[in-house]
Every structure is written in structure tokens, then in C-alpha cells.
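Lab manual, section 2.4: Encoding a predicted structure.

Procedure: take the sequence of the chain (144 residues), apply the prediction step described in section 2.3, and record the output as C-alpha cells. A sample record is shown.
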Amino acid sequence: MSAIAWNTHLGDVHGAFGHIAQALLAANDKPRWLVFLGDIDIDHLAFREVLAPLRHDFPATKVAFIHGNHDADSYAHWEMLHDCGDAVALHAQVTALDGVRVAGLGGHFMGRIWRPPAPAAFQNKHQAMHRGAYQWRGGQKPNP
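Recorded output:
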């Protein structure tokens, strides 16, 4: 009896997803999780739609992701990525994926937070965590 692979990490796909299905079909053990590690890079189609063929062919495989620098290039990139259906957005949180704790520490932030050479937007962690209402999309947080 073969073991089930816990996860498969995918980085820098830059909008190309066909090779993922081919690799999964060739694999003896199908992963329980596909974890996209940034630079998914889609600005024209919702991530849930991009994932639909993979979800159809591999219904037992769950999806999680963290954005990369290209996923924050524009609001279109950010919006398309976060229109993700039931995929788990890992950015800025610690969560459990089938009992395994994972920290989503992308390290890249949109320009309104990280603005060199301008002065720091926040002087300390408390200010950053309690900055008041979000100013983007009518107060809606960018990452659910």
C-alpha cells in the first residue's frame, strides 16, 4: 500500500497551470494539499476558475496559497487571486492544514504598507495592528 503524499509545493507558476495536472497524473501518490508559494500571477481570470480543472480531476486534493510579489502588482492581480473559492489564503496567519500548522509569511506587501524611501507607515507593531478601518474597497479587508 502506498503512502499518501501530504503536500506538493508549487512556486512561481506565473499563470501557467497545465504542467501541474500532468505532474499530478504521473505521480503515484496524489497530494492531499497543493500549496502555491507565490507568483501565481493571474490578472484576467479568478483563481477559483483557474483551479476548476484541477479540482475536477483531483477532487480530494485541497489548495492553499500565499501571494508573491507579482500577485500584488496591481489590484486586478490581487482581486483575481483572492477570488479563490474554497482555496485557503495563508497570508499573514498561522493555520492548520490537516493538523499541520503552517505560517503564511509572504514577506511582500502592497505599496501603501511598504513605501521606501518614505518614512515608515507604522512606528511599531501596535500601530500596525490597530490602524483603524481599512481604506481599501470601502473598508473590506483585502485578504479574508
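Check your result against the sample. The beta strands are 7-10, 33-37, 62-66, 88-89, 94-97, 100-103.
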